[in-house]
Amino acid sequence: MPSAEQLLASILECVPQPVWVCDQSGRILYANPTAVRTVGYDDLAQLKGKSSHHTMHYKRVTGEPYPAEECSMLSPRFTGSPAHSDDDWLIRRDGTMFPVSWWSAPLALEDGRGVVVAFTDMTRHRAAERALREHEAERIRAEEARAAQRRTMETTVWIRRQTARDLHDGVQQRLVALLIHLHLLKEELPEHLSGLADDAVSEAEAAIEDVRAVAAGIHPAILSSRGLAAAVESLAARSPLPVSVRCSIPARPAEIVEANVYFLVSEALTNAIKHSAATEVTIDLAVQDGTLVVEVADDGVGGAAVGDTGTGLLGLADRVLALDGKFRLESPPGRGTVVHAEVPL
């Protein structure tokens, strides 16, 4: 009949977790195959009879010596109570260290109280935890970056609106006053100076139109006064290409959404005019399940990519993502281009 120790060995032979048994002096009596392999040995004979502590647990992860009297792993031999650690390290045969979580318990042997130790190699677990932390840190950084970009966009919208208002209320009004004075002056000038007066009037009128165009490019007044739908209709009306607009927006979006969607449509329309060789453009704006869905499609040559220089597509994508939205570009060669964006309201 097998002894208790032989019976224990036969049981532990089938256990997938690394386990070893030490006698009262702390020397290894038995280690199952999983434990032997995990600590880098080929056969139990290479471990049997050796001091457990001085073979696999003799230094800390910092490289400092780990005195046996400070080690609690084999303490159940003396205390009779189980011991446990979730944050420890063992040493392989080649001297490399690996993180472990271990449990030890007293074990009655024929020549006195020994100890049985079971451990789990935490290398993969630690790597998974580290990857999770890095992923979470990356997610937080991305959220912070989007929040910072959104704040920048909000500031930009305010500056654009304020600058456009200043141009309209300041520079443009002064030019209008100048034009009125030029007309009055023209009536007082002799005939031979009327040509110069006409030139001055023309220059003043051109300057007023330039200021209006600049102000509209910075932040169109119609966007502030009448909203996104009217501003896009106005944009389409000024286009050299035929543009059809379908708009179904029951209420005005937040200012930052309204302004950035307008400039997205404007940039996409400009790209269609400049780069696509299109003959017509379609603009769709609709609200679906609390999301503003925008699509600008042309029938041009296609072949556009988000990273193309001179198109501003990458900036459009960044702008949409900063609003927690989704951006998609479809531009197969020869089949036109579709700029699609979804922005939460």
From TrEMBL:
Reaction equations catalysed: ATP + protein L-histidine = ADP + protein N-phospho-L-histidine
Keywords assigned: ATP-binding, Coiled coil, Kinase, Nucleotide-binding, Phosphoprotein, Transferase, Two-component regulatory system
SUPFAM superfamilies to which the protein is assigned, alphabetical: ATPase domain of HSP90 chaperone/DNA topoisomerase II/histidine kinase, PYP-like sensor domain (PAS domain)
InterPro entries: HATPase_C_sf, HATPase_dom, PAS, PAS-assoc_C, PAS-like_dom_sf, Sensor_HK_TwoCompSys, Sig_transdc_His_kin_sub3_dim/P
Boundaries of every PAC domain copy: 84-134
Record PANTHER family: NITRATE/NITRITE SENSOR PROTEIN NARX-RELATED, NITRATE_NITRITE SENSOR PROTEIN NARQ
Protein name: histidine kinase
GO cellular component: membrane
Database matches in Pfam families: HATPase_c, HisKA_3, PAS_9
Single GO MF annotation: phosphorelay sensor kinase activity
Coiled-coil region(s): 125-152
Domain named PAS: residues: 4-41
Classification via PROSITE patterns: PAC, PAS
Superkingdom of origin organism: Bacteria
EC number(s) stated in the UniProt entry for this protein: 2.7.13.3
